[in-house]
């Protein structure tokens, strides 16, 4: 008689949990706000156990992720009117599949370079965090 391990369950990586704030749950992803007041910055984390790469999602999940990236990009564009939107799925430090959607301005601290490793993250002051979360949640589809 063989024993099979139970299927893996989705769990948010501890570093993502520590560095982001929850905004909402979409069809596939957790939508989270990066705790860096230097930039309006969203992170989408597909709720798929052990997903590390886009190819770990099936075709329907990849299409849904694309739709949810579009939703996050429109959310930032409509709320902040940025000069540019950056979208990236790197995973070099946090292996769990997650996608960054970042609103960029020509005068932001890292412009025109990528945001990673340019300036230290600036955590949101509590009052600003509450306002930013409310602003974004109010714009999410009901």
Fold and architecture overview:
- The structure is a single chain.
- The chain has 142 residues and is α+β, with helices and mostly antiparallel strands.
- It has 3 helices and 5 strands.
- A 5-stranded antiparallel beta sheet has the order 1-2-3-5-4.
- A hairpin with a 6-residue loop joins strand 2 (29-34) and strand 3.
- The model has no long low-confidence stretch (mean pLDDT 95).
Notable traits:
alpha+beta; 142 residues; HIT_Hint; 20% strand; HIT-like_sf; 3 helices; globular; HIT family, subunit A; five-stranded antiparallel sheet
Percent in strands: 15-25%
Gross morphology: globular
The CATH C-level class name: Alpha Beta
User: How would a textbook summarize the main sheet?
Assistant: 5 strands, antiparallel
Strand order of the largest sheet: 1-2-3-5-4
Q: Which stretches are low in confidence, meaning pLDDT under 50 for 5 or more residues running?
A: none
Instruction: Please give the share of residues in helix.
Output: 25-40%
Order of helices and strands: HEEEHEEH
Annotation field: number of helices = 3
Gyration radius (Cα, Å) is 16 Å
Specify the CATH architecture: 2-Layer Sandwich
CATH homologous superfamily heading: HIT-like
Terminal CA distance: 49 Å
On the 0-100 scale, what is the average pLDDT?
A: 95
In total, the number of domains comes to 1
Summing up helix and strand content along with how strands pair, one would put the structural category as alpha+beta
Number of DSSP E strands: 5
CATH topology, anyone?
HIT family, subunit A
Pfam families: HIT
Organism: Pseudoluteimonas lycopersici
Protein name: HIT domain-containing protein
GO molecular function: catalytic activity
């Amino acid at each position: 008689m063989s024993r099979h391990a139970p299927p893996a369950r989705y769990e948010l990586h501890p570093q993502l949990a520590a560095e982001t704030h929850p905004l909402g749950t979409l069809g596939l992803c957790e939508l989270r706000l990066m705790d860096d007041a230097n930039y309006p910055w969203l992170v989408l984390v597909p709720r798929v156990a052990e997903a590390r790469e886009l190819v770990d999602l099936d075709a329907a999940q990849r299409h849904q992720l694309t739709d949810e990236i579009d939703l996050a990009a429109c959310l930032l564009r409509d709320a902040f009117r940025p000069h540019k939107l950056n979208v990236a799925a790197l995973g070099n430090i946090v292996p769990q599949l997650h996608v960054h959607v970042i609103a960029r301005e020509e005068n932001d601290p890292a412009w025109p370079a990528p945001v990673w490793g340019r300036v230290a993250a600036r955590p949101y002051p509590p009052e600003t965090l509450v306002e930013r979360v409310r602003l974004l949640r109010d714009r999410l589809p009901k």
